[in-house]
Amino acid sequence: MNTTLYSHIQFMNPYLEARYLKLEESRNRLLDELEGLDEELLNRPAAEGKWSINQTIAHLIQSEQLTNSYLQRKMREESLETAGLAHVVRSLILRVALNTNMKFKAPAAVAQVPAQAALPSLRNQWDAARYQLEDNLTELPQDMLDKCIFRHPYAGMLTMPQTLTFLQDHFNHHARQIARLRQQWLGN
User: Tens place of pLDDT for every residue, the chain, 188 residues?
Assistant: First the structure.
């Protein structure tokens, strides 16, 4: 019997893992639903100056890539602010806003999406971003769960659980947008 201990193996916090798995399940369901659609349809903008389905997906990917980069920088810092009531309130306001049909102007850093994209390529990019997010969550020390680790452009600093909630709400906001476009193009 092999009794070798692997002390270098890390496991994700179960609380974060549950949120991560929900986010992954949502993403995979959406991509699977879109997989059989014609690329022309996926790249057709809703109206002049509005994003197509693939552009919306590219925006979601950019958001996660930038989130990952920011998290990696913050996780290396020695001293992080502990979240307080103001952080909770701003996070809740962000949740409410994203769970409405309000429209928001995307921050400049995540507003430049390609005019055309292929869904398989987008899936690969999103896979890479998610693998990085999984690594970040796995590497996050337990004592950093209540620390301000991500700066949302409008809500300010968020903890890791609040960041995962934001990513899910942001995804859901755009998934509703994609569903409306699918309805418009396909009538179902």
Answer: 555 555 556 788 999 999 999 999 999 999 999 998 999 999 999 888 899 999 999 999 999 999 999 999 999 988 999 999 999 999 999 999 999 888 888 888 898 999 999 999 999 999 999 999 999 999 999 999 999 999 999 999 999 999 999 999 999 999 999 999 998 888 76
For CA atoms 75, 88, 168, 98, give the dihedral sign: negative
Q: How far is CA 172 from the centre of its chain?
A: 10
On whether the CB atoms of residues 101 and 179 are closer than 8 A, the answer is no
Query: Residue 30, Cα to own-chain centre: how many angstroms?
Result: 13
Provide the residue type at 35 as one letter.
E
Could you give the dihedral angle defined by the CA atoms of residues 3, 135, 147 and 15, in that order, rounded to the nearest 10 degrees?
A: -70
Q: Where are the domains of the chain?
A: 50-131+140-186
H or E stretch at 58: helix 53-75
